[in-house]
Amino acid sequence: GSEISLVKSDKLTTCTHLPYEPFQVKKGGEVVGFDVDVVDLVAKKLDVKQEIVDTPFEGIQTGEDLNAGKCDVAAAGMTITDVRDENLDFSKPYFEATQALLTKKGKGYKTLADLKGKKLGVQQGTTGAEYAKEQGKGVETVQFEDLALLLTAVKTGQVDAGINDNGVLYDYVKGNPDTEVTAEFDTGEQYGIGVKTGNDALRKEIDAALDKAKSDGSYDRIYKKWFGK
Ligand code: ARG
User: Fold this and answer.
1) Statement: residue 5 has pLDDT above 80
2) Partners of 54 in the beta sheet?
3) Within a domain: residue 3?
4) Which H or E element spans position 155?
5) Interface pTM (ipTM) of the complex?
6) Which one in 59, 190, 226, 228 has a CA-CA gap of 20 to 30 Å to 166?
7) Structural domain containing residue 29
């Protein structure tokens, strides 16, 4: 037992938004991924099991779900930003990311300027959508509710390119050799695990679990498991 109060007393409830492979994805009826394994370290420390709730990214990134008591933590490959930090509290960073561009192979789109007058798929509520809005002058953005819809739209030619985090796009091209990642934009993002504003007790447990995982090799093991190097 710990002095941490949880939404469901015997569980660590995690809000996430599926699919975001390899961070969270349903495989054989079970949600697995890098984030799942990282949060499991926290659950283990608290001596409870993790329970995952799949919910739209909007409610996660606005802090709405955490503040409504829907979940204890939000782990969704979520970038730490100043705006989000006003509405929820973040753990220390646990992963680095940058925006990247996905196209069908051989299209030749390597910059947002190349996409002037073309369609660029973005995922709703994400830092990629924000980046496209700010930097993609004259680019027509098309919003998608989740990553899977965005990836399919690129593959089928419904959009000319898609923007999202490098980790998920590189994972996708491995299994879809008709697509390629043509650019990385240096957005210097870091993922954090969200808790309700002021839940310092839980935030400190997460930070301690991350510190321990980095020093005892479990972070590296999880990294290798999902990224293979
Ligand atoms: N890192 C990006 C952001 O924070 C995208 C996260 C999307 N995550 C997800 N599970 N769908 O905006």
Assistant:
1) yes
2) 16
3) no
4) helix 147-155
5) 0.98
6) 59
7) 11-94+192-227
